[in-house]
């Protein structure tokens, strides 16, 4: 959550624009983006827990 909060804290206008852009995307694309983020997080968790 610390990393997720850095975007709105440091770059609120750019973060807002990115959220607007994401809101207009197709649901399938959002699912792929979410899956990629979850996969990347799992890999990072594995790497840093070793």
Task: Give me the secondary-structure topology.
Blueprint: H1 2-10, H2 12-23, H3 27-49
What sort of overall outline do the alpha carbons produce when their principal axes are compared? Answer: flat
Average pLDDT across residues? 92
Distance between the termini: 21 Å
**Gyration radius, to the nearest Å?**
13 Å
Main sheet characteristics: none
Helix content: over 70%
Low-pLDDT stretches: none
- Helix/sheet category: mainly alpha
Annotation, overall tally of beta strands = 0
The H-and-E topology, N to C, reads as HHH
Q: Report the total helices.
A: 3
Descriptive overview:
This protein has 50 residues and is an all-alpha fold. Helix content is 88%, strand content 0%. It contains three helices and no strands. α1 (2-10) packs across α2. The radius of gyration is 13 Å and the shape is flat. The model has no long low-confidence stretch (mean pLDDT 92).
Which key terms come to mind for this protein?
single chain, 50 residues, mainly alpha, 3 helices, 88% helix, flat
Entry summary:
It is built from 3 helices and no strands.
């Amino acid at each position: 959550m610390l990393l997720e909060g850095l975007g709105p804290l440091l770059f609120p206008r750019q973060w807002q624009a990115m959220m607007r852009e994401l809101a207009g995307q197709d649901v399938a694309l959002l699912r792929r983006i979410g899956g990629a983020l979850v996969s990347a997080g799992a890999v990072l968790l594995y790497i840093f827990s070793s």
